[in-house]
Fold:
Amino acid sequence: MAKRKLFGLILTAGLMLSLQANAALPPGDKAPAFTLPASLAGHEFSFSLAKALKKGPVVLYFYPAAFTPGCTIEAHDFAEAMDQFQALNATVIGISMDQLDTLKKFSVSECRNRFAVAADESGSVSALYDARQSHDTHAARVSYVIAPDGKILLSYENRSPDEHVSRTLAALQKWKADSSRH
Structure:
């Protein structure tokens, strides 16, 4: 009997930890405000979510590490789609736990000078967005679309970089269509 209770407690604790480690913030929640050092086309600046939202919706995507195969693919995909994001008046910002010097190079070569990337070296913003891998040294691959009012429209978590761009574009297009009807 004691072994069964102990097993049940261990199983429950393990399940709760796995849910917490991979639970992106849900649509409808208010996006946590933050400011981070960032780079666009190799030039350093301070990115503020609050300021970006004053201009329109924001696509916020977390990725594990600059210059890794999946993150490079994802950066190329976002760069290629920037005309579509700009047509929807959306700001795109990628966030990793890399150092800013690394991201300055990544913003030029892999982001192709088309969108900014921010350095969350401490992982504090990744933690706010439940986008931190369980071992805490890298961000998870999580994408968010945030409306100008600060509400999360989409949260999408998938280790594969393949659908992050198409899903964020679809969420923006739906938001724009819904907004124009009101």
Residues 47-181 form a domain with the Glutaredoxin fold (CATH 3.40.30.10).
